[in-house]
Amino acid sequence: MATVTSKLKQLTAPDPLARMPDPWADFREIEIIQLEWSQTYRHSLGKYSRFFIELENKRFFATRCPNCAKVWAPPRPVCPDNLTITEWVELSGRGYVVSFSVLHYAPAMAASLKTPYVLAYVKLEGADTLFAHLLKNYGELSEVRHGMPVQVVYNDGPVDHPILSMAFEPAEGIRD
Amino acid sequence: MAMLDRKVVLVGGGITKFAADRVDASVRDLVVEAVMLTIEDAGVDLQSVEHGLTSYESDHFNRQMTLGAILHDHIGMVPKPNVRVEGGGATGALALRTAFAYIKGGLCDSIIVYGGETNGKSVTSDTAQQFFALSSDADWEMMVGGTYTAYYAAMIREHMRLYGTTERQFAHISVKNRRNAHYNPIAQKPMDLTVDEVLASAPVAEPYKLLDCSLLSDGAAALILATEEWAANHSTQWSRRPAVYFVATGCGTDTMRLGDRPQPYPGLAHFRGKREAARQAYQMAGITNPRRQIDVAELYDSYSGVELQAYEDLGFCDYGQGGPAAERGVFDMGGELPVNTSGGLLGRGAPVGATGLAQAIEVMLQLRGEADSRRQVPNARCGLTDTHAGTGTHCVVNIFERQD
């Protein structure tokens, strides 16, 4: 008898609607197998690359539209409001929390994050959009609120993805 | 907007049992089951249907690309034409909108729209969260630990700040939808809950708790759409029951990242894409007072608070009134405008490619007067479905009417 190494189980499955007679009576013997699938990507960060490279230099860059002056953070190589090529501008990295969530489960790709952790939407000084990132070293969760002043901090350790070279931390008040 | 003077009807529809683990069926089995139920309901020989339309979101859950080719083949539709439609969470509703255009445009007189998904146990729930997170901005939001629950949580928190919306108010919606699911035989998870039990369930991404979150499901659904003439000539059931017309469709979009949306509207708290989709659909259907003119609605309750926010952008109530109206029972069975009589994504379940189709089937049953008597809205004549992808990134509103 052949051995199927991927076989997880074999069972007789009931009709989920318990019909009498079961129209699929001859098809109730079920086999479940395990499939593996993983892959590695060579992923260009393209025209967004300078943002990530500058994070390594502890500098925070956004892009400004020369046409409408809107500042995009995260940056966009083209301002979608008028399809104009933007220019890089450096921001202070200071801002305040607009909204946030406290996560008790991390997705598989961020499994290294210790729960609970805070994902914050931050209005940065000089930017017209909100930037979403982790808020670290917030002390007590009850301290995290709309209007909380924060600043970009840079990570010296090795990181999986360049976006993790930064995070937010509480700052002295620029706005409350 | 000029439209060919062809009316589109729902000839019939079918839906499988939704479950967390349809261990007895692969995705192709599920879609075949749904199609067989559909032709029985429609009273149609599938050989006479001219066109196919495949509705599914993800290649990842099934480890199979071009699933449409397999499904179209397995239901005996080859060599007739087929098209696959994908729009994230809105896939099923976008599929119906596409079918509407195919018929309106005269490309065909009849089309079968079929779709399904195995989001339940084919991968672990961690991996499922990961797959769904890939449908957010993978470079900018997912890698910092973002999940859809967290994005939606930030949205409802902002709504709470702006309007004083409470966790009790959106918990009420979870209680309502899971209660409604009791009377829907294909529903995945009917529950008798109290608001306090929802509030006491485990936090997932605060302020959302486990019982505020919709289900991961296996299941499939299908519908046959046609012109009136085609239905009269090809369906043995058409003249025997109330006729349901697909009268209007609207579609709206918003930026992928929540943070890129303009302030103050939509900001983080509102669904601009839904408002736009509804505006178009209401104009096409001649609806000026949705709360009064719509009798039954299936809303995209991926999270309990999302339904509350949708009441406002769909014009069912004023901004900031979604919470109080939910608590007063406006959208309960027996209320002014019952919402999610099927149980919704919270109680019936949500196999993505089938979700929008399942919503339309619920409205079809309601308009025919064929829903279980405990969930039937009396004399329902106009029904709406609201379906979206992302955090309202891609939104579709479809409107159906009984005409007799």
Structure description:
- The complex is a heterodimer of chains A (176) and B (404).
- In chain A, β5 and β6 form a beta hairpin.
- The termini of chain A are far apart.
- Chain A has 176 residues and is mainly β.
- Chain A has one helix spanning 49-56, and strands at residues 7-12, 29-33, 60-64, 71-72, 78-79, 84-85, 87-91, 94-103, 117-124, 130-135, 149-154, 166-170.
- In chain A, the strands form four sheets. Chain A has a five-stranded antiparallel sheet with strand order 10-9-8-11-12, with no helix packed on it. In chain A, strands 4-3-7 form a three-stranded antiparallel sheet, with helices on one face. In chain A, strands 1-2 form a two-stranded antiparallel ribbon.
- Chain A contains one helix and twelve strands; from the N terminus they run ββαββββββββββ.
- By secondary structure, chain B is of the alpha/beta class.
- Chain B is globular, with a radius of gyration of 19 Å.
- In chain B, β2 (51-55), α2 and β3 (82-85) form a beta-alpha-beta unit.
- Helices cover 36% and strands 18% of the residues of chain B.
- In chain B, α6 packs across α12 (322-328).
- Chain B starts with 7 loop residues before the first strand and ends with a strand.
- Chain B has helices at residues 27-42, 67-74, 91-104, 125-133, 148-163, 167-180, 195-200, 228-234, 272-285, 290-293, 304-313, 322-328, 344-347, 352-368; strands at residues 8-15, 51-55, 82-85, 110-118, 203-206, 208-209, 218-227, 243-253, 296-298, 382-389, 394-403.
- The model of chain B has no long low-confidence stretch (mean pLDDT 96).
- Chains A and B meet through β8, β9 and β10 of A and α4, α5 and β5 of B.
- β8 of chain A pairs antiparallel with β5 of chain B.
- Adjacency order of strands in the biggest sheet of chain A: 10-9-8-11-12
Low-confidence stretches of chain A: none
In whole angstroms, how far apart are the ends of chain A?
73 Å
Question: How do the strands of the widest beta sheet of chain B line up side by side?
Answer: 3-2-4-7-1-8-11-10-9
**Compute the gyration radius of chain B: what is it?**
19 Å
Q: What is the chain-wise order of helices and strands of chain B? A: EHEHEHEHHHHEEEHEHHEHHHHEE
Number of helices, where a helix is a run of at least 4 consecutive DSSP H or I residues of chain A: 1
Major sheet size, sense and barrel closure of chain B = 9 strands, mixed
